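Researcher: Next sequence.
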Amino acid sequence: MVRRVAILMFDDVEILDFAGPYEVFGVSGQHDGKSLFDVYTVALEHKPVLARNKLNINPDYAFGSCPRPDILVVPGGSGTRWEKHNETVLEYIRQTAVPAERVLSVCTGALMLARAGLLDGLQATTHHGALAELRGDAPTATVLDDARVVDNGKFVLSAGISAGIDAALYLVAQFHGLEEAQATATEMEYDWRHQVVDGASVVRYAA
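Model: Next structure:
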């Protein structure tokens, strides 16, 4: 099964927040000629967005034309501080989350999940500089200051920026096994240290 991965884009999105998972899902399986994930980008409108440091990105789809994904990636960046108040964006996240197998937030993407009401009663993490803000946006969630990856089942959250690579590899391992995820990390020459659910850096929670 080839799973579709939609990565949400918006102005001032953090580059590695979206590019890290994009690379993981895109590379996975290529070492032996397999196509495991179909990765694409989606934004409110089908027009360029300016990522951090003015990197120009052309989204593949607008909300209204985007194929329904199996995995939705919600990255972070300074743009989340206004997008978390954008009801159109929040409603897209809510509606897309319902049929999705997984929703992965990276860094302050967790703030948008929180404002969409999707973290109630769950465990969560985000960039270390936004932990207090996440507590304010998701008052019923348990925010884990030291966790790098938090798995609630449908909702998987990662800490800041590079932690999104770890979370994406974690999902590859869930879907296709640890060996496949390790092969992906090796192909990327990424020093993947957070492979095991240890209850501290990688946390799995059952509500």
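Model: The mean pLDDT is 97. The longest strand covers residues 37-43.
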